[in-house]
Amino acid sequence: MVQIQPQPAPWEDSLAVRAQSDLPNPREGPAHDTKENEQYEQEEQRNRENCHNGQQDTLVSRTAGSKPAVTPPQPDAKREKGRKSRTVSSKKAVTRKDEHKEALAVLKYSQTPSVWLEPDADKPYSLLPSELPNGLVKRHLHNLPEVLARLVSKAALAGKDGRTFASNVMASLSQHPAQLHAMIFAVMVHDRIQQGISNPTATELMVGTEAIRHLNRELSDPKGALTDSNIWAVLVLAYSGREDRTRSGQSYPRQSFLRELQSIHIYLRMEIVIEHVLGLIKMVELLGDLRKIKTPGIAPIVSCCGIMGACRNISRPIFPFISLTVSFVREDGRLAITNHERNAVAADLGPLGTSFWQVWASNASTPSYLEDLLTVIGDVCDFTVVVENHASGRWIPLTSPEIIDQRNFVQHKLMSLRPAEELVAATNITVDEVQYETCRLACIIYSFIVVFPVPPVVGPFETLTDKLKRALQATEWKGFEPERLKLHLWILVMGAMGSIGLPDRPWFLLRIMEVLEEFDMAAWKDLKVLLQSFLWHPRTSDPDGVDIWKAVQHGGDRPEEAST
Q1: Average pLDDT of 104-111?
Q2: How far apart are CA 314 and CA 422, in angstroms?
Q3: pLDDT (mean) for 128-136
Q4: Residue in 235, 238, 233 with CA at minimum distance from that of residue 170
Q5: Where does this protein have compositionally biased stretches of type Polar residues (predicted)?
Q6: Which residues of 84-102 are buried (b: 16+ CB within 10 A; e: fewer)?
Q7: Across the chain, how many H-helices and E-strands are there?
Q8: Longest dimension (CA), the chain
Q9: I need a labelling partner for 522 at 20 to 30 A (CA). Which of 99, 269, 502, 532 fits?
Q10: Which residues contact 205 (CB under 8 A, 6 or more apart)?
């Protein structure tokens, strides 16, 4: 894939570190080395003549300009060994490394690049409201545009949408110290987690403390408290907590390529700071509507953070859905997907989702909560088409922000479905459908694998599979008719997928073995046909599905607790 070099953005002239042209230019190549050898030969000849006349010379560093102690020149034994008839060979040319050892022996550079890149690296950056060292500010603000751009576009700074969003958000840095320090802190956390470093540095904690101090000062002014900059600063601090605990085992469900879209593979690894989240909720309530945020792109990111929080806590989103674009859906509310896109994946995806409508017919007598579930399932099927086309390398008429909107739209609707207990408690609706809750939880597991991939942090999958196990234990499945029994089997497979690497995995495998006795299946392909009639993405999950089939064919793992 050809990498598109982005054009310099407006902030780069003032925030980027000094250009490479200001650094000492490395002198490389055989031609230069040969020239250096000729100069060395002439200098050595003069030294020998001076020594013959009883004179001494002083070697002066051409770079440092300092005079070391007076010593008689000594020929280099290694160079003399390789010299033939005083003729310089390009193969024996003096390397730049050897030349520096000889001529710059007394010159020592600092190990910190910013010190010699910027002479004033330890002084405050005068163009921004911060007392942080110049080198620290420039180093992290240099990475900030890329980090921001990836929130709205997979192309990041190579795309117009990413550059525009980064420029809009950074435009107010010079007027709002809270936003400035919060963003520097967020970049430090982002870069550290991306590098696989768990523990924060003292500098990182200090910058975070400065951000909170400035934020408290700005929020104390009622007239300027609800600015876009302050809302963004609180949002950044709320979703840039410490790195959460990750799975200790190697096993984890395989996931689709979308795990890096909007950098959720990084942000979903961070703990959510509840104090800042509560502050953000209060600010949004006082604002009245997220759409009142004037800076383009901030409101959709706030909405996305609400989705991430819902996925982490297996709860409903705390913010309404707001999109980056308007073209991601059709007028009827379905995702903007063409028939050509559907036909392109028909052979690979099979009769995706059709078996749900054989269990529940959508008609006037269908309860509203079931209608909502079926609508979301249709959206999940549509987005699976997008995932397959994109993963297959097929051209699709969607921009990166539109794909982000479609994914977040589907995930927001799915996480917004009320649990069965909440439906009964909050709406007094009698949930007669015994498979509603288990199906809802199984759909969330599927989404965590294909639609909105959740990284291997401790919590989401553990909570999901535990809830699903409890709901299944209360389900009397032996009286199910064939279509409901197929749905029950798909739900169990989703539980086995979500519990990969977890203690509940054997329980799901044993339940699958029991249900398979009601079917005439001789091979994995028979089970796959059933799974594809519900929700299944072969390119992502076939290997894990094969593992499940092999496990149940070999008797599974039968610890005592798994049989309960």
Answers
A1: 37
A2: 13
A3: 84
A4: 233
A5: 52-64
A6: eeeebeeebbbeeeebeee
A7: 24, 0
A8: 115
A9: 502
A10: none
